[in-house]
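Researcher: Please translate sequence to structure tokens.
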Amino acid sequence: MIARQLISETITPLSPSETGASALGLMDELRVSHMPIVKDKEFLGLISDTDILTYDNFAEPIGTHPLSLANAYIFENQHIYDVIRVIDALKLTLLPVLDESKHYLGSITLFTLSHHLSNLMALNNPGGIIILELNDKDYLLKEIAEIVESNDAKVLGMYITTFNDSTRMEVTLKVNKIDVGAILQTFSRYNYTIKASFSEDTYTDSLQERYNSLMNYLNI
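Model: Translation complete:
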């Protein structure tokens, strides 16, 4: 999944002639703290509410003031992982997407990003969760997948958690079986440490509730 597939239809960029007051009003309406400034498809930068609050006069055009985030953007063909990395690094509420000529195409909001992350995590698919703890040298994706598949199941999603100053890692698996007992027994026979496991009713429903709460908050 790449950046241009994540663009939200709810964000209309600001023009340089827009006043600070109207920009703040639009940010409040959209529940974001940043907005792109665009002139004739040319991306000029990303303005934040913090930038505007430094103005002496909110009636002044935003284009007359310097921007703290002039280079906050991503290109259309970059992967969703790059989108997450940039948003996290710059603490953004939305991320502008540009083409190769640096023309503005649209913006990715946290709401649309969260929606697509839900699909990547297979949150809406029934199944169970298994969390394995192992040394990074012992990590073999092929073996983990084969263990799951030997029990007539499939891996729907997976992510890895690493820890600073440690070779320990956690592998979280989402599989398409609610009853993961047989899979756990096989992992144990292969000497994997099972840190936790959850059925759909306990873990996945909890994640769904948290996701729905986040979506409702972002959509207010």
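Researcher: Any highlights?
Model: The radius of gyration is 22 Å.
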